[in-house]
Specification:
The protein is of the alpha+beta class. The protein is built from eleven helices and 18 strands. Strands 3-2-1-9-10 form a five-stranded mixed sheet, sandwiched between helices. The protein has a five-stranded mixed sheet with strand order 13-12-11-17-18, sandwiched between helices. It has a three-stranded antiparallel sheet with strand order 5-4-6.
Amino acid sequence: MFTRDIGVDLGTANTLVCVKGKGIIMREPSVVAYDIRNDAVRAVGTEAKEMIGRTPGSIVAVRPIKDGVIADFDVTSAMLKRFVNEALKGSLFSRVRMVICIPSGVTEVESRAVYDAAKQAGATDIDLIEEPMAAAVGAGLPVWEATGNMIVDIGGGTSEVAVISLGDIVTAQSVRIAGDDLDEAIINYVRKKHNLLIGERTAEQIKIDIGSAKPYEGETSIEIKGRNLVDGLPKNVTISSKEVRDAMVDPIAQIIDTIRLTLEKTPPELSADIIDSGITLTGGTALLRGLAELIAEETGMPVTVAANPLDCVVLGTAKRLEADNNFQNYVFRQGKRFR
């Protein structure tokens, strides 16, 4: 009775936290700012993200999750601890049961790092669930039935593609190319074409404002600011929607190739189901203009974007917290839970 159940979508770009009985209580960027002089955490989440590229030498703003896995263990633990404390604020609960999501393609060492970070953050009972499984449940797909369901979860660091039937993953592919790589492609394009150096936050904003996977009606251009690589002075340039689209061609093509590879490995009966039910997109990058249409053209399958693509994974963990009996058939692919 003194246990609080928490679900965590530990993403490369954003971390979402839900509490059993309360729903989603937190959506924060996966960014931590800390003082290198005493290793003290100065800010977490949105406040820390605002500091990226603007900190003095004594403060470092970092993203501790890289390509869907932990890149900095201590900083990740500190971030999780902040989120757990926020979830427990004002309650008498002393124990924390945590369901936490990880990419399907992680190694046992990487999944162990997530477990240990959650343990260090104060969780007493930890359950791991693969992101495509959680995303499919959160998107409301009939994953417990004897029918093929294809989910494509494109986040910040990884793209997860899986076919699910009878409550478990039949075949899956995970590629560490996603939203961050689209941002990096924009940075590289602007540097080569315009001799202008821009930051991650600017590239992400360009992608959101005028980025697309296919030409769209009402395409426009925007003015961006950065540092001129020729003379080192601040400079403004104008960049068009077409330029941004051309910059992102390669990473988008690799994501589509991963979808194709998964379809090739899908059993024939399930492939027939997917032709009828189609492919469901989740994750923040699923919101990129024209991406669903481009995937539909390249695969010949109907493609839909989930109702709340950013929330699907954490909503799936919420279902797990509710002790949904259907999850009895689901087994984490590493074959065991750590103790």
